[in-house]
Amino acid sequence: MEDYLRQYGLLFLFTGVAIGIPASMLLVSRMAQLARMRPHKPSPVKAQLYECGMETIGGRWNQFNIRYYFYALLFLVFDVEAVFLYPWAVHFKKLGLFALVEMFVFLAILVIGFVYAWRKRALEWR
Amino acid sequence: MGPVLADNSIYRDVYSFFVGFMPHQLWWLAYLIAGLTIMVLLANAVLLNTAVFQWMERRLLGRFQVRFGPNRVGPFGLLQPFADLLKLLLKEDIVPEAADRFLFTLAPAVMAAPVFLVLAVVPFGKNSYLLDLNIGLLYIIAVGTLSTMVLFLAGWGSGNRYALFGATRAVAQLISYEVPMVLSLVGVLLLAGSLSLVQIVEAQRLPFLLLQPLGFFIFAVASIAEMNRGPFDLVEAESEIVAGYHTEYSGIRFGLLQLGEYAAASVPAAVIATVFLRGWANPFVPLGWPDVLPSHLWFFLKVFLVLFLFIWVRATVPRLRIDQVMGFAWKFLLPLALVNIFVTAIEVQLWRQPTTAQLWAMVLVNWVVAAVAVGGLSRAMERHRRRPTASVAPVPISVEVR
Amino acid sequence: METARRLEPVEINVNMGPQHPSTHGVFRMVLWVDGERIVQVEPYIGYLHRGTEKLCEGELYPQIITLFDRLDYLANFNNELCFCMAAEKLMGLEVPERAQYVRVVLCELNRVASHLMFYGALGLDAGAMTPVMYAFREREHIQRAFEAVSGARMMHNYFRIGGLKEDVPAGFKEMVRDLLPGLEQGISECDRLLSLNEAFLARTRGVGAISAQEAVEYALSGPMLRAAGVPYDLRAVEPYSLYDRFDFDIPVGTQGDCWDRYMVRVEEMRQSLRIVRQALEQMPDEGPVMAAGVRRMPRPPKGESYMRTENPRGEFGVYLVSDGSERPYRVKIRAPSFASVQALPRLLRDCYVADCVVVLGSLDIVLGDVDR
After folding, report:
1. C111, C261, C123, C232: which is closest to B397 by C-alpha?
2. Which residues from A are below 8 Å from C13, CB to CB?
3. Global pTM?
4. Do the chains contact at B61 and C129, CB–CB below 8 Å?
5. Could you say which of B1, B345, C14, C194 is the most buried, measured as most Cβ atoms within 10 Å of its Cβ?
6. Nearest to residue C75, comparing CAs of C326, C310, C253, C236?
């Protein structure tokens, strides 16, 4: 247990390092600006959005039609399935035939659902 | 000293060095210093690896495309990435007024973080790693996903139309390729019986590339899609949506996004090297034999081999369309991953403690299954794909004589 | 009710161009998209409008040739040829054979160069970044030959009304002949690199298809029309210059989709090289390159003429009205790319955002040609 905590303690520390490195680069760049090594000449034209040299038509923040709704649902199903599969796979050698059959039944049900979704053309982008 | 430290050579050395002249109560300080030593090693390795990879990609793409690639800065252009970094550091920082300033700044700052975190659990040499989590692979998948979230932040925060396209595409790709990617590793878990990468390496009596050809294939393709490279770089498809999620970025923010992206390539490379190519061990001789090359060198050789593969694919294949990308994940890779799980589970059930001969039998069966499954499914896909566009069949151009 | 309306699918619109990496110049499309689907497309042209037709009215005839160089800037020789032949038709000039052969060789090489450019650009549009480099390697050889002949890589200003500016440099025949095997090999290499690539097929096959009937109705010409299955090539159906002396095939597609348009052009490159080979064999080694009795500032007689040639992009036409002075009264240019752009909204029906660049790439428009 102690070992476990020690490891995650290091991980926590490492998260700091991982965010610190890019953040320090941002900081260095900022310092360069303060030291007048980096130009800073803001202008309204520069601050415009890039849309091929034209003004953006319509508002900037738009409702966007996301077309992969079905995929998202399926993704949920299969990712939850993975949660079951991983422990099963890790301990499979100790569990024996029963676990195999059990998991195959589980997978079969999922596959049936998957085939159904396929047949219903839920896997077509529309 | 806990058992984790005991078999980690770098920890052990640094720890025992410091604990030697410290009061006994300060053992945790020595532990911390040992940990920080590896962190510094790791962070530098990631950054340097990114620089080398970027240089390598540009040079190799040059070779593939009958041109030179960068060759001016330093010998063979080796210092080009550093020159680029310096240039980007000194570029003006422009934030569009329409952007969400907080998200816009946050995205580049955290873009590279998941890469560092993921590589913390990968053993990069014999007995050398930062952490040996017992949920290693799961952790890699969970944390690795974060970079896509960052892409979405960047795209959404820019307030730009193209960036919005890039952002939604990033999420679409994530939810599609996450599934086959996760499932492709189940076969490995069945064989190795552990999620810890250290133990997975040690469980590879034969490299899992031989035992899990399907798993390797699916994982490689899915990880290319997850890091938005090669034929799946829809997120920043320059011919369609200009630069995708980083359209509005410039200066060091852009540099950090690029850094994150290139660093992200080393994650799947390191995972593939570890999980499928036997990590730090010599892949050609049985485990435990004395080795000619140092284990770290083996690891980096394999990582760069996989990176070369990624570059090669990128140089060859045109970009797919979003519906094709999604279809490929769900209709092609997912069924393959399921087949792989079924077959591997049955094999492991049959041979619980396989002898070497049985392992080779497994190799044979798995390669046959892989060939049949990939071949058969691609044929089925072909028919399926043509159905909605029935009016057009691939007819060769007929040359009419005047 | 209010909520229901707000949850309906929204269409947002996106500017593609004028400043876009893959609109082949300053071309602008406004797309109305629903997610990744294109609902409606509106092409906007005119960003490169230079008023060439009006400019022509104020220039002397030899000066106009330079303007034509700048129309379709990937097929300069072909443009020059068409204008020169329109004037020659009006003046009733007989161009010397040697000059005619040189013209044919240069025009066909220019067609190859233009199609190579198309090949690379379509590859880039489809997201393959390697083919363009191979295409440009081959194109470079052609450009060098052009430079040797005319002194310029793009804006040649080499054809004259009644012939050529000057004779080709010594060793021209050998130079071009040595070029051909390399080009043929290079084209085959390009073909192998991209044509049957599975991903490329997926991106182009069945995308932006148009039927032969519709292609005719949209006044498409050149490879666009032939890809739709109409074997119509001005070089064959209405041979101008010396084209009735050569033996070549017209590649024709069946589906009229992007892949057919691509394949037709790849095949056309081979046919062009065939023509070049024949032309080099038939070409006289000696002889004048300028018709006798043409003044430095030609004054075509009062009247009008229409000349059309097969440009790499399709039917290029020049309608020339002369009032007998040293400047034309009116020049009307029929630009093939202009007609192609018209068909764009039709071709992009039910397409994805990603398709629009591939379809646009397959039209192979040159904005100098569209906007004139």
Report:
1. C261
2. 57-58
3. 0.85
4. yes
5. C194
6. C310
Is the CB of residue C47 less than 8 Å away from at least one CB of chain A? Answer: no
Beta bridge partners of C29: C16, C43
Beta strand extents in B50-158 (DSSP E only): none
Q: What angle (nearest 5°) sits at the alpha carbon of residue B382, between those of residues B219 and C265?
A: 105
Among the partner residues B97, B131, B172, nearest to A10 by beta-carbon distance:
B131
Cβ within 8 Å, pair A65-C13:
no
Nearest CA in chain C to B321: C354
DSSP states of A78-116: HHHHHHHHHHHHHTHHHH-HHHHHHHHHHHHHHHHHHHH
Please report the sign of the dihedral spanned by the C-alpha atoms of residue C89, residue C95, residue C99, residue C100: positive
Q: Do C21 and B397 touch (CB under 8 A)?
A: no
Per-domain boundaries in chain A = 2-119
Please write the tens of the pLDDT for every residue from B64-94. Answer: 888 888 888 888 888 888 888 888 888 888 8
Complex ipTM tops 0.90: no
CB B289, CB C97: distance < 8 Å: no
pLDDT of A57: 67
Q: Are C316 and C308 in contact (CB under 8 A)?
A: yes
**pLDDT number for residue C245:** 84
Q: What is the Cα Rg of chain C in Å?
A: 21
Look at residue C181 and tell me whether its pLDDT is greater than 80. yes
* CATH code for the structural domain at A2-119: 1.20.58
CA distance linking residue C252 with residue C246, whole number of Å = 18
Q: Which residues contact A83 (CB under 8 A, 6 or more apart)?
A: none
Cβ contacts of A49 on chain B, cutoff 8 Å: 96, 98-99, 158-161, 248
Using a CB-CB distance cutoff of 8 angstroms, which residues of chain B are in contact with residue A39? 91-92
> b vs e for B196-221, b when ≥16 Cβ sit within 10 Å of the residue's Cβ?
bbbbbbbbbbbbbbbbbbbbbbbbbb
**Predicted local distance difference test score (pLDDT) of residue B397:** 43
Decide: C259 and C334 in contact? Cβ < 8 Å. no
Size of interface A-C (CB pairs under 8 A): 40
- Residue of C10, C15, C37 lying closest to A63 (CB–CB): C10
Cβ <8 Å between C264 and B397: yes
Buried b (16+ CB within 10 A) or exposed e, B379-396: eeeeeeeeeeeeebeeee
Count CB atoms within 10 A of the CB of residue B290.
6
Q: What residues pair up with C42 in beta bridges, in sequence order?
A: C30
